[in-house]
Specification:
about 120 residues; mainly alpha
């Protein structure tokens, strides 16, 4: 089960990641000499995918896509070397949001279950 806190934290990470990945588009064009069309598809496409998946996190299967986006962000490091580091940072943030969000949801559910009904 994916609770509200996990969804909020993971969604926030994906939105932040979308900003960073989107900002790699000008770097792809100007520094790495990737053709403009390819840079737009890679940079902005991955940013758009992050935003779309953030909105789909109410479904359990969207978390699998979230993990795949982390891998894709790290793979962008083959074009922009800094993305190896940034992708790893976002992978760590995504994992922390996923794990801690789930823990908070479980503890909150246990606390509500312990309250006697009146």
């Amino acid at each position: 089960m994916n609770g509200a806190m996990r969804r909020r934290l993971c969604s926030a990470m994906l939105i932040l990641q979308a900003v960073v990945v989107g900002l790699t588009t000008p770097v792809l064009i100007s520094i790495t000499q990737v053709p403009v069309n390819r840079a737009l598809v890679l940079g902005l496409g991955l940013a758009l995918a992050c935003i779309v998946v953030a909105g789909l996190l109410r479904f359990g299967w969207a978390y699998v896509l979230g993990w795949a986006l982390q891998v894709a962000s790290i793979a962008m490091g083959f074009l922009v070397t800094a993305m190896f580091t940034l992708g790893a940072v976002f992978l760590a943030l995504w994992a922390a949001a996923y794990i801690l969000g789930g823990k908070i949801d479980r503890e909150r559910a246990a606390a509500y279950a312990a309250i006697p009904e009146s």
